[in-house]
Prior knowledge:
This protein has 139 residues and is an alpha/beta fold. It is built from four helices and six strands. Helix 1 (13-25) packs across helix 4 (121-138). The longest helix has 18 residues, at 121-138.
Amino acid sequence: MNIEVRYVSRSGNTKKVADAIAEAVGVEAKDCSEPLTTPIDLLFLGGSVYGGGVDKVLKQFIDQLSPEKVKCVAAFGTSAIKKEPDRETEKLVHNKGIPVSSQSFHCRGEFSVVHKGHPDNDDLKQAASFALAAVKAMN
């Protein structure tokens, strides 16, 4: 199975989660400036909420995706404000005609004095478990 991890991270929170996911599935996490060069069975795609929506770089990355190149996307993210996952990434991917995994992951991210230390080791272990569950769901 061909797996990739892409993310957008301004503060480093989402990068930490992306790295944990990538390690769990045996690939390297790359930011969204790295294009996909081969067909992907499962793309882990992550970002955070900035100003009420996903980052424009993540939106641009999603815009260039196609169902011919990506079979499925598993979304993940971090947030200092929202308690629940932001579903905008999943909606944008779905609108491109790409299936979205039923597995997703969200955790708190540190911002200024809010949620100091997050994502923490427990968050990163949960991210790794999410990744393995998403891969298992594909088989």
